[in-house]
Amino acid sequence: MGGHRQSNQTDSVKPSSSLPSKLQEATKDHHQRSGRAPLPQIEKGGNQVMDPAWYMGEISRSEAERYLRRVNRDGAFLVRDSSNRSYDQPYTLVVLFQDKVYNIQIRRNDKGFMLGTGLKVSESFERVSDIVNQHKHMPLLLIDAKNRVSSQQNQCALTYPAGN
Fold this sequence. Notes:
- Residues 54-162 form the SH2 domain.
- InterPro entries: Immunoreceptor_sig_adapters, SH2, SH2_dom_sf.
- This is SH2 domain-containing protein.
- It holds the Pfam family SH2.
- By secondary structure, this protein is α+β, with helices and mostly antiparallel strands.
- The protein has a domain at 61-161: SHC Adaptor Protein (2-Layer Sandwich).
- The protein has helices at 19-34, 61-71, 128-137, and strands at 42-43, 48-49, 55-57, 76-81, 91-97, 100-109, 112-115, 140-142, 154-156, 160-161.
- Strands 3, 4, 5, 6, 7 and 10 form a six-stranded mixed β-sheet that branches. It has a two-stranded antiparallel sheet with strand order 1-2. The protein has a two-stranded antiparallel sheet with strand order 8-9.
- The chain is globular.
């Protein structure tokens, strides 16, 4: 009635080309304030999706161990979301070597990501996938958290992805 026709178009709302980056910044700021890590599937700037062959997302330590035990070979590995889901420690690298499972922290720093506690000098990587690729070729030093005084140091390359 009244000759007014409703349009399905929203002429007054124009898409902004900067909207995705603004949303990304707002999400990052929110996660930093809340102490929670951003969505883990997309890394740094959204430029890389982690490989499902080794990235398992939000699974528990025991679930990660089950995946590794299915492969049951030295060098079986996966990356899972960290149990505490903090911005500074978003992921954990889980490795099977000599029938023992190692959970290694993946931490954020100002240059990207690094392995371990950060107490000793550690190499930084732009992406988590760079860590994985490096340690496919260069063995990783495995430290037994329950037996740190042992002089035995095991090294293992990331050989068998235990993901999906």
